[in-house]
Structures are given as C-alpha cells and as structure tokens.
Amino acid sequence: MERINYQHLYYFWHVAKLGTISKACEALHLAQPTISGQLAVFEQSVGTQILRKEGRKLVLTDTGRTIFNYAEEIFTLGRELTQTLKGRDTGRGLRFNLGITDALPKLIAYRLLEPLLRQPETVQIHCYEDKTDRLLAEIALHSIDMVLADRPATPASGARVFNHFLGECGVGIFATPALAAQYRQNFPRCLNGAPFLLPTANTALRRSLNQWFDSQELSPSIQAEVENSALLKTFGAAGVGVFFSPLAVAKEIESQYGVQMIGPAEGVYERFYAITAQRKLQHPSVAAILANAQQRVFEILAISVDDVGSGG
C-alpha cells in the first residue's frame, strides 16, 4: 500500500462510525454500490480484512480499529482546518486518550484527572471505559495513552506495558440512612448476614473483601455482584444493600448517593495504578496525573514503576 486514498478512507470512516453501509449512504448522499465498491477497493489496498459482519452490523477488525483511530484524527483535523480558515477559534488542545477499567471508582478517576481540567492549556480528554484486557490491547495499538486500573497489568496480558503505582487508601462500608441505622451497633459483627453489594470475583477489591469476611467470621448475604463501580453505588443508593468504597472519597460518596458510612473495613485497602506503553512518562498529561496522585489524592511518598512483560 504505497499511498492512502483518502476518499476511500473517508467512506470507511463513515461506515465504521455508523455501523452499516446503508446509514453511511444516507449520511453521504451516495448510492450503496458506490460505497460498497470503494470499500472493497480500500480493503484490497490494505491487504487484510478491516470490517466483518456481526448480525446486521459491520464491526471493526483489529486492523480496522487501528485505521479508524487514525481516520478520526485525520478528519477531526480536517474539520478544524476548515473552521480555522473560516476564522473560528477551534480551541484545540493536546489530545489525551484515557482508558478507565470498569471496577475503578469513578470519583477516584475524577480526582486523578482534576489537574488536567484546571490547567491553562486546553487538553482534549477522551475517556473509554472497558475491561482491563481490552484496554491493554488498545495501549498496544497506541490508541490509548494510559489506563487507570485497580490492579497492575501482568505478563499474562501479553502486552509490553509499565505499571505506575499511584497509591492506596482504606475502604469504608456505606448504606442508606435506614440501613446504616441497623448495622452500627457491635460493628462489624452486626454485619453478619447483612445484605451486601459486592464487586465481582475478578476484581482486586473482591479478593481482599473475601479475606476480610473470613477474618471477621462474617457470612454476608450477597444481593448482587456488580463489576461497574458506579452501578454498584447506584444499587446501594436505592437501598438494595450495603457496599464498600474508598475512604479517600467518603464525603463525595455520602453527598452524591445520599448514603452514610457505617464504619471502616479495617485492613482492607484499594490500590490504584496507571498503565502506560512507555516507562518514561512522555505525555505531559500522564506526568500530571501521577504527580497529582502523589501530592494530593493519596499522599504517597514515592511512585514505583514495574516493567511488565519485558523480562526485567
């Protein structure tokens, strides 16, 4: 593939965004055979499949996703160039692609990102939430600059990445005022048989909580297991059960969800990591997040960096 045909790339970009050729035809005011034919030519020039059918929709292959990410940048720049030539201020800043794992508390994620939202230079933050392994795959494709996670990446992930320890904090137990009133006396023994909302078994916090239940000789009544931390708190706010959350954002949890802290889960800590493709923190937004974690969010004394998958 010596030179990209940007017209073909433009058609591909629309199809990938809209999910079907027919929708792309409507948006571009073109006949279906035109786009179908140009897509086939583009795929042939690429030399591998870039779209595949799943039911009635077209989905991206790994190569297609890489091409789509570049196309997003290319045509976003094109729109901004048009606006600039028309005398409009685009407000364009440094782009920062961030992955956030499902299990990571979203209030913690916000606290970590705060310095980017307040600095004088504009930063375009693009957040993607997904499972850790999928986000690590995007780092390998250089589609994401950093992943915020509740556990470090391991060599088993298959990606050469670097873990940056952000810090840790204790965990508290929260519930609606009505539920909290029932479980304050003789804490934590009073929690035996209490209705609990727990993170799923694949999360680092759940493994720590299982050990805590055993050490306290508690048998929780599990009402639901929820991987997404925000959804779990929403269940808790509805009075479905008591739940755990980091103490670093205890006041925000109580205010936002209308709950109260029953007490701390002594000995249980939630740890947080930034995962990047480079050991050296080249992207200024990554450096700002790590500095903020060190100085304000967790108040740790040092950031340790572990090389994953490099044999050293």
Which CATH C-level class of the largest domain is it? Alpha Beta
- Cα end-to-end separation: 37 Å
Instruction: Indicate the low-confidence ranges by residue numbers.
Output: 300-312
The structural domain count equals 3
Strand content is 15-25%
**Which CATH architecture of the largest domain?**
3-Layer(aba) Sandwich
In CATH terms, the superfamily of the largest domain is Periplasmic binding protein-like II
Overall description:
By secondary structure, the protein is of the alpha/beta class. It folds into 3 domains: 6-86, Winged helix-like DNA-binding domain superfamily/Winged helix DNA-binding domain (Arc Repressor Mutant, subunit A), CATH 1.10.10.10; 94-167 and 272-297, 3-Layer(aba) Sandwich (D-Maltodextrin-Binding Protein, domain 2), CATH 3.40.190.10; 169-268, Periplasmic binding protein-like II (D-Maltodextrin-Binding Protein, domain 2, 3-Layer(aba) Sandwich). The chain is 42% helix and 25% strand. It has 11 helices and 11 strands. It has helices at residues 6-18, 21-28, 32-46, 62-85, 106-118, 132-140, 177-182, 204-216, 229-237, 250-257, 284-297; strands spanning 51-54, 57-60, 94-101, 123-130, 146-149, 161-175, 195-198, 221-225, 243-246, 260-276, 305-308. The strands form 3 sheets. Strands 3, 4, 5, 6, 9, 10 and 11 form a 7-stranded mixed β-sheet that branches. It has a two-stranded antiparallel sheet with strand order 1-2. Helix 1 (6-18) packs across helix 3 (32-46) and helix 1 packs across helix 4. The longest helix is centred in the first third of the chain and has 24 residues, at 62-85. The radius of gyration is 23 Å and the shape is elongated. The chain starts with 5 loop residues before the first helix and ends with a strand. Residues 300-312 have low confidence and may be disordered.
